[in-house]
């Protein structure tokens, strides 16, 4: 369809269009009607009702159910209108407002998104409209109209256009003389919440609930009178707490007018820490596998189903929270666990079988920002709390962007001080992150070398890279694995801290898959000097830690071909 500025600015006037106009709603709190001869009088008011959509779609009607009140994005306050054109319906929303005869009004609204039109009909004189094409940010539309000698009501409306994107409206204003309908009363702050109570407690969290407050759009939960956490419901779980510690909690209610007084305080004490135990020592030569806490088409596994060849099982992934640096863990129902307790039992069983179970942080779509002392502490505190709660042996750093060596090192040092010498600390950088010792990832690995278990670089989804001999190698070959691993081995990491990370199957990565035999050849090349390609290192490193794969699920999907081949090879290294 033609989207040029030659599109007519006016509205169609056929019967169906007029019917749609009757349903149109004035969107946004930006509609303004100015009374008199163009100058606002002392008695002039905004005669539009629910002009900012703080009360949903009250007072508005939208054609074919095309409109909805949303909480984001908004121009001001906590609500806005979002209307979506579909088929022959261009998502008109309207409201009838009371006006005074022979008066001038200024109509305005703030709009964003797709094509947006704003206008008024039934003015008794000349009906008006204005419009704007797609707008990525909030933009105000404004026009004026004058009512006829006997006009006491006018319909204000907004709509989009056929086949275009949804549009948003907020802060509608029809500013002029009061036509008898008055204006919206000024909002008032909500009452103080009642009934605050503590529920389930763990060593690192306290569940809270309270009664709903009329007119509240959100609640602030205070811990010991500070650090408010904003939520929209009437319950929350406060996490990241210290074990066996007493806390006081209060809650207040908020809306666009302000915040209520804090509720009466309720006290709760976190449970004593359950020491997860140091877990088994990581074998001299180890196989690491990532276990998927989500369903992406690979074979779904519970932890108990993870193949026996894996010595380190990285639970993927932790979640970030609203607190910068803090992490949480949320068990995905898609995995099939009946309860969190069932998952914890599987963690304990794997540890009893000699495996290390760690929590991976990051991944392709997840990231945690650690760029200050406060975020470093938040990370360490929350990571240790999760280790205590679930029994994890440690943490895997799989951050794929935004690594700050200074503060990530501080975070890992703090975590190590809490967890002790049994901490299992692994990393899974991309190839670009380990090309030289000046990269943030490499600097972090060297800075925590004394507490680092293994770096399993991802030798996939990479393209060509430089090897330690300065030559370019293409992924998917034994040379790519050996020549790039050589950079880390020569760059300061102990051989026991170097592992080869590869996909478990062709579906496990976008590119870079190699047959398990290629992995085994690379292991032989680095540890024994046999099985090499064109690149042959000047020395061997018999204590090389082993190999890693993404993921145990994709391995299972491929009939365990990867672990059945690579597992025995790793465990049989010298």
TrEMBL record:
Spans of biased composition, class Low complexity? 184-196
Among InterPro entries, the record links this protein to: CenC_carb-bd, Chitinase_II/V-like_cat, FN3_dom, FN3_sf, Galactose-bd-like_sf, GH, Glyco_hydro18_cat, Glyco_hydro_18_chit_AS
Q: Where is this region: Disordered?
A: 176-196
Write the Enzyme Commission number(s) for this entry.
3.2.1.14
Q: Domain named Fibronectin type-III: which ranges? A: 192-273
Q: Where is the GH18 domain?
A: 285-574
Q: What class of enzyme is it?
A: hydrolase
* Entry annotated with the keyword Hydrolase: yes
Q: Which family does it belong to?
A: Belongs to the glycosyl hydrolase 18 family. Chitinase class II subfamily.
Checking PANTHER family in the record gives: ENDOCHITINASE
Q: What is this protein called?
A: chitinase
Organism of origin is Streptomyces vietnamensis
Phylogenetic placement of the source organism: Bacteria, Bacillati, Actinomycetota, Actinomycetes, Kitasatosporales
């Amino acid at each position: 369809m033609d989207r040029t500025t030659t599109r007519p600015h006016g509205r169609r006037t056929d019967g169906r269009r007029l019917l749609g106009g009757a349903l149109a709603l004035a969107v946004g709190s930006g509609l303004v009607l100015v009374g008199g001869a163009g100058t606002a009088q002392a008695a002039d008011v905004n005669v539009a009702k629910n002009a900012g959509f703080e009360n949903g779609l009250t007072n508005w009607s939208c054609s074919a159910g095309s409109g909805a009140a949303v909480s984001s994005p908004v121009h001001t306050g906590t609500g806005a209108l979002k209307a979506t054109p579909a088929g022959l319906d261009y998502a008109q929303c309207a409201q009838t407002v009371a006006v005074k005869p022979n008066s001038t009004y200024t109509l305005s609204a703030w709009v964003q998104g797709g094509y947006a039109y704003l206008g008024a009909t039934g003015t008794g004189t000349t009906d008006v409209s204005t419009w704007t094409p797609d707008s990525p940010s909030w933009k105000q539309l404004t026009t004026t109209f004058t009512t006829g000698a006997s006009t006491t009501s006018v319909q204000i409306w907004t709509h989009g256009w056929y086949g275009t994107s949804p549009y948003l409206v907020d802060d509608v204003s029809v500013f002029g003389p009061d036509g008898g309908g008055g204006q919206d009363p000024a909002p008032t702050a909500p009452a103080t919440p009642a009934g605050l109570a503590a529920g389930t407690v763990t060593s690192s969290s306290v569940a809270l609930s309270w009664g709903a407050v009329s007119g509240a759009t959100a609640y602030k939960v205070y811990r010991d009178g500070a650090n408010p956490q904003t939520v929209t419901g009437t319950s929350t779980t406060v996490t990241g707490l210290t074990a066996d510690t007493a806390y006081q909690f209060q809650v207040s209610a908020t809306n666009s007018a302000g915040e209520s007084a804090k509720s009466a305080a309720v006290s709760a004490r976190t449970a004593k820490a359950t020491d997860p135990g140091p877990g088994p020592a990581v074998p001299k030569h180890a196989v690491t596998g990532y276990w998927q806490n989500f369903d992406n088409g690979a074979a779904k596994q519970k932890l108990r189903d993870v193949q026996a060849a894996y010595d380190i099982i990285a639970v993927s992934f932790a979640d970030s929270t609203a607190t910068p640096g803090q992490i949480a863990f949320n068990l995905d129902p898609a995995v099939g666990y009946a309860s969190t307790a069932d998952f914890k039992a599987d963690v304990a069983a794997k540890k009893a079988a000699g495996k290390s179970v760690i929590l991976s942080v990051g991944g392709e779509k997840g990231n945690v920002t650690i760029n200050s002392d406060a975020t470093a502490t938040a990370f360490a505190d929350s990571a240790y709390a999760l280790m205590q709660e679930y029994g994890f042996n440690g943490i895997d750093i799989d951050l794929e962007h935004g690594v700050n060596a200074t503060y990530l090192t501080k975070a890992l040092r703090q975590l190590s001080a809490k967890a002790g010498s049994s901490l299992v600390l692994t990393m899974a950088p991309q190839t670009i992150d380990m090309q030289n010792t000046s990269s943030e990832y490499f600097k972090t690995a060297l800075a925590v070398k004394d507490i680092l278990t293994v770096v399993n670089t991802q030798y996939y989804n990479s393209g060509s890279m430089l090897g330690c001999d300065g030559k370019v190698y293409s992924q998917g070959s034994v040379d790519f694995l050996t020549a790039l691993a050589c950079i880390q081995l020569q760059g300061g990491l102990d051989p026991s801290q170097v592992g080869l990370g590869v996909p478990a199957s062709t579906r496990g990565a976008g590119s870079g898959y190699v047959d398990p035999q290629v992995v085994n050849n690379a292991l032989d090349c680095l540890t024994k000097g046999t099985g090499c390609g064109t690149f042959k290192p000047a020395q061997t490193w018999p204590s090389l830690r082993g190999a890693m794969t993404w993921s145990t699920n994709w391995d299972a999907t491929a009939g365990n071909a990867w672990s059945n081949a690579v597992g025995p090879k790793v465990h049989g290294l010298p």
